[in-house]
TrEMBL record:
PANTHER family from the UniProt entry: PEPTIDOGLYCAN RECOGNITION PROTEIN, PEPTIDOGLYCAN-RECOGNITION PROTEIN LC-RELATED
Name this protein carries in UniProt: Peptidoglycan recognition protein
CDD domains: PGRP
SUPFAM superfamilies with a match to the protein in the record: N-acetylmuramoyl-L-alanine amidase-like
Length: 697
C-alpha cells in the first residue's frame, strides 16, 4: 500500500517541479568522486539534501510539493544508507527514496523506499537527530536520493543522506571489559554439615559478542545505564531489507551501530539484541547481556525493558523458523531471569510516546511488538502476526520429560536398584536452547543440579528406598518433573546354609541325577542365580533349585552365586562325590536270584518274587537313592531308612527300563544310615529287580 501511494505521488510531482542550482540542472551535474586515500576510507559520509543554491521552482500546479534531491554522485565505498534530519521530534510527511550504485558491477539499483514511521527512541538529547531506518545495500560507491513532501508541507531542517561503511575502521578498537555472568547462590539444604548444591550458571544464549561482530567501542563515549527488572521484551525489525546473505550479518550490525551513533547521535546501538534471518543472535548495546541495560529502541518504554530486532523487512515476509526460535529464546532468557512469565501481560507507565502520553499506563503483552507502543509499522505485519507463536514457545513448560534410566542401577517392577551412587538419566523434547537447568531432588531435598545441555547427574543416597525427582527448569521459569523410586541396597545376599545337593529320581548310568537347592535372602530381592558344577546355568532370582547330573565316583563342587537387584553378589559352594553300592554289597534276607544283562549296572542285578525278601545297604553320606528296574509287570517294594518305614514304591511302568533311581532321600549333613528295600509280593506281579544303591559322600 505504501509503495503504491508513493508511486502515485511521484507521478504527480514530476512534471510540476524543477530543481536548479546556480542555473544548471542538477540531473546533468557530472559525478564528483570524493577524495580517496588508500587505507583511509571513511566510516561515515554525509551529503545534504538541501544544498546551498538549491531553490524550488514554482509550477503550474496550485499546490506545489516540497522536494529535495541529492543528484546521482560517486562516493567512497559504503554498504548502508539512511537519511537524517536535525529535529528528532519531526519527520518528513512524504517519502524518502534512495538508489545506489554497486561497487563491483557499476549498476544502479531501482529506487528503494526508506521506512520513516519509527519515532526517535532515545527520548532526545544533545546532538540527537531524527532519521529513517537504515537500508542495507551491500558494497556500493554511488548514491542518489530524493525527498517529497506532498501538499506543500515543510521538509525537516538539516536533511542529509548518511552513508555508512561498516568495514572501515577510523580508530583501533578499544577492548571493553564485560561483567562476568552472575553466579547463582548455593541452594539451601536441610541437613547440617552437607556440602550445598550449587546451581549451574543461568545459560546465556549462544551469540556473537560485540567483539565477535567488530563493535567500534571507540565511538561509545558514555558508560551503559541500567534499569530495574526486565518486565517486557519488545520485538522490532530493522527495515533494512531482506536481500542480504547471513555472511554479511556482522557487517550489517556494525553498520547499524555506526548509523545509530554517528548519524542519529546516540551513545551506542539502540537494540539490546539483533537476530539475522539465519537465527544467529548478536549482542547489541553494551553493558552485559545478562543485565538490564537501558537501550534506545521503544520511545517511552525503554526502562525495565529489553529489545530484539530481527535484521530485515518483515512487513510482508514472515521471519524464518530459525530466527523465530532465537527471538523466543532471548525473550524467555530476559524475562525468566526476573521471574516474569513470557505468556503474561504487564502494565507499564509510559515515559511519553506518540501512542501513550507520559504518565499513561499501557497494558501490554510481555513479548510485544514496537507498534504496541508507537505509531509505526514495526516490526512489520508478518512478524507481528508471529508474536503469539513466539510467546507460546518462550513461555512453555518443558515438554516430554521422561526417565531414560538410572545409571548404575537395575530396573525391576517400576523401581531402580543400586548399591550406592545413582545416576538419574532423562530425555525431553524441548530444545536445549530453551532450558535453564536440571535439578535432582531426593525425598524432597535438592541433591544435584546439571546444566541445560546435560541429561544425567549423580546423587549419593542412604540405604533404603527413595523418591528421586528430576526437575527441568525452562528459561521462562516454568518447570516439569518426573519421579521414580530408587532403592539403595549395599548389602549382599545371604545364604542361611550351604547349598544342599541331593540325589533325585531318574536314569543312573555313568552319571547320576542330582538336585542342587539353596536358600538365599536379600532385602531388595534377587535378580539372578548362577550355578556352576558339572555344568553351568544362569537362572532367575526366584529360582531355588537346579536339576543336573554328577559323574559316578568323581568329586563334584557346586557353586551357587546370587546377585541381587542392586548388583551385590554372594556365593556359597558344596562338594559331593556320587558312590554306587551294588546289589552284591547288600545284606540279603529271603530268596533272590541273579540277573545278567548289559542294561544292568555292572551287567548284573538281583530279582525277588517272595514277599519279605530284602536287601540292606549301610553307608555314610548325605543322600541316597534306590536303583531298580521297571517293567509293566513289576511289583511294589517297601523302603525303610534306619529301620523306619518310609513308604511303598510301585515299580510298574509302561516305560520299561533298568538302572532307574526310583526313590531318594537326603540329609542336611553327612551321617551313617541303612536303607532296606523289601519285596511286597504284589498279587499278580510279585517280581522286583534291584540294581544297587547310590549315595553322596
Amino acid at each position: 500500500m505504501r509503495r503504491t501511494r508513493l508511486t502515485a505521488r511521484l507521478a504527480a510531482a514530476t512534471p510540476a517541479i524543477a530543481v536548479a542550482i546556480a542555473g544548471a540542472s542538477v540531473a546533468l551535474r557530472p559525478p564528483v568522486p570524493p577524495a580517496r586515500t588508500a587505507g583511509a576510507e571513511p566510516v561515515l559520509q554525509t551529503f545534504a539534501l538541501a544544498e546551498p543554491g538549491m531553490r524550488l521552482v514554482a509550477a503550474r500546479s496550485p499546490v506545489v510539493p516540497r522536494t529535495a534531491e541529492l543528484a546521482r554522485r560517486a562516493t567512497a565505498p559504503f554498504s548502508l544508507v539512511g537519511v537524517t534530519w536535525a529535529d528528532p521530534r519531526s519527520a518528513p510527511q512524504g517519502a524518502i527514496e534512495v538508489r545506489t550504485r554497486h561497487l563491483t558491477t557499476g549498476a544502479w539499483s531501482s529506487w528503494q523506499l526508506l521506512e520513516t514511521d519509527n519515532p526517535d527512541a532515545s527520548a532526545g538529547g544533545p546532538g540527537v537527530r531524527g532519521s529513517s531506518d537504515p537500508l542495507w545495500v551491500g558494497p556500493s560507491d554511488g548514491v542518489q536520493a530524493r525527498v517529497i513532501a506532498p501538499g506543500g508541507d515543510e521538509l525537516p531542517a538539516g536533511l542529509r543522506v548518511d552513508l555508512i561503511n561498516p568495514d572501515a575502521r577510523e580508530t583501533a578498537p578499544i577492548p571493553v571489559k564485560r561483567p562476568a555472568p552472575a553466579m547463582r547462590p548455593a541452594a539451601e539444604v536441610n541437613n547440617a554439615g552437607e556440602v550445598p548444591v550449587v546451581l549451574p550458571v543461568r545459560p546465556v544464549p549462544r551469540l556473537v559478542t560485540r567483539t565477535g561482530w567488530g563493535a567500534d567501542e571507540s565511538i561509545v563515549k558514555e558508560p551503559p545505564e541500567y534499569t530495574g527488572s526486565v518486565h517486557i521484551v519488545f520485538v522490532h525489525h530493522t527495515a533494512s531489507g531482506n536481500g542480504y546473505d547471513c555472511a554479511d550479518s556482522a557487517s550489517i550490525v556494525r553498520g547499524i551501530e555506526r548509523f545509530h551513533v554517528k548519524s542519529k547521535g546516540w551513545n551506542d546501538i539502540g537494540y539490546n539484541f539483533l537476530v539475522d534471518k539465519c537465527g544467529r543472535i548478536f549482542e547489541g548495546r553494551g553493558g552485559g547481556v545478562h543485565r538490564s541495560v537501558l537501550g534506545a529502541h521503544t520511545l517511552g518504554f525503554n526502562a525495565n525493558a529489553s529489545a530484539v530486532a530481527v535484521i530485515g523487512d518483515y512487513r510482508s515476509a514472515p521471519i524464518p523458523a530459525a530466527a523465530r526460535a532465537s527471538v523466543a529464546q532471548l525473550a524467555a532468557y530476559k524475562l525468566g531471569a526476573w521471574s516474569n512469565p513470557p505468556l503474561g501481560k504487564v502494565g507499564l507507565v509510559s515515559g511519553g510516546s506518540d501512542r501513550y502520553p507520559a504518565g499513561q499506563t499501557a497494558l501490554l503483552n510481555r513479548i510485544a511488538g514496537h507498534r504496541d507502543t508507537g505509531r509505526t509499522e514495526c516490526p512489520g505485519n508478518a512478524l507481528y502476526a508471529q508474536l503469539p507463536a513466539i510467546r507460546t514457545t518462550a513461555g512453555a513448560a518443558p515438554a516430554g520429560l521422561r526417565y531414560r534410566g538410572v545409571n548404575g542401577a537395575t530396573a525391576y517392577g517400576g523401581k531402580y536398584y543400586t548399591r550406592s551412587a545413582a545416576g538419574p538419566a532423562w530425555d525431553l523434547s524441548t530444545p536445549t536452547r530453551m532450558m535453564d537447568r536440571f535439578e535432582v531432588w531426593a525425598d524432597g531435598r535438592l541433591s544435584a543440579a546439571a546444566p541445560s545441555g546435560h541429561r544425567q547427574a549423580a546423587v549419593r543416597l542412604e540405604p533404603g528406598e527413595h523418591k528421586v525427582t528430576v526437575r527441568a527448569v525452562h528459561l521462562s521459569g516454568k518447570i516439569a518433573e518426573t519421579s521414580t523410586a530408587v532403592v539403595v541396597d549395599p548389602v549382599a545376599p545371604e545364604f542361611s546354609e550351604p547349598p544342599l545337593v541331593a540325589l533325585r529320581e531318574g536314569t543312573v548310568g555313568v552319571s547320576v541325577p542330582v538336585r542342587v537347592g539353596w536358600t538365599a535372602t536379600d532385602t531388595s530381592g534377587l535378580k539372578s542365580v548362577r550355578v556352576r558344577g558339572a555344568a553351568s546355568e544362569n537362572l532367575s532370582g526366584g529360582t531355588r533349585q537346579y536339576a543336573g547330573t554328577a559323574r559316578l565316583g568323581d568329586p563334584a563342587t557346586w557353586a551357587v552365586t546370587a546377585t541381587d537387584r542392586a548388583g551385590n553378589v554372594a556365593s556359597a559352594a558344596v562338594t559331593r562325590t556320587p558312590v554306587l553300592l551294588t546289589e552284591a554289597e547288600a545284606t540279603r534276607t529271603g530268596t533272590w536270584r541273579a540277573m545278567r544283562d548289559q542294561g544292568l549296572l555292572g551287567g548284573e542285578a538281583l530279582a525277588a518274587s517272595a514277599a519279605g525278601a530284602s536287601l540292606t545297604w549301610t553307608f555314610t553320606g548325605s543322600s541316597a537313592a534306590v536303583v531298580a528296574g521297571r517293567t509293566a509287570a513289576s511289583g511294589r517294594v517297601r523302603i525303610y531308612v534306619d529301620e523306619e518305614f518310609q513308604g511303598i514304591v510301585d515299580l510298574r511302568s509302561a516305560d520299561a527300563g533298568n538302572g532307574r533311581a526310583v526313590w531318594a532321600r537326603s540329609w542336611r549333613t553327612s551321617g551313617t544310615h541303612t536303607v532296606r528295600v523289601q519285596a511286597e509280593g504284589t498279587t499278580g506281579r510279585p517280581s522286583v529287580v534291584l540294581d544297587g544303591l547310590v549315595y553322596l559322600r
